[in-house]
């Protein structure tokens, strides 16, 4: 618990400095080998998962203090992979709303897909809501915080969200995410508020 608490405190600072989370591809691993994911940022830690030698779109959440290991999710937990074999995908803006991304939450369960083509929300208490991605902003003077808004074309519907580059837990697993979301959804004359995590991995 102490180790996790320290990680949660340091992740926002690390993510801002390193522009994380970000998608990476596995590079330099032999075709008949795998890249190990370990329980901690050390080659002596036990293996908790693996990445294929041609794996693409691996989401690195944060780096360890030395920058040699990246935090990634595997199964229902997170682990650490050597950054010597992970190459950042080009074209990821250092300080802009990450698009595309998928967001989600529990109690009640809901999901939101964010793409250039628009926003799609699905939940238990609200029918599917689709809007444009009309506006995206970056917080003035505060790195790693973004806003977005979208409006429905067929009915009075809209969404407003604030995304932060910070540690986020889904509350149901040991996975750690690098983006949090506060979301307002207006549909059918009802305004609902949600909070959850977001992931770049597809």
TrEMBL record:
Domain of life: Bacteria
Keyword Cytoplasm: no
Cleavable signal peptide: 1-17
UniProtKB keywords: Signal
The keyword Chaperone is assigned to this record: no
Residues covered by the SH3b domain: 33-87
Protein name in UniProt: Peptide-binding protein
The organism's taxonomic lineage, starting at the top: Bacteria, Pseudomonadati, Pseudomonadota, Alphaproteobacteria, Rhodobacterales
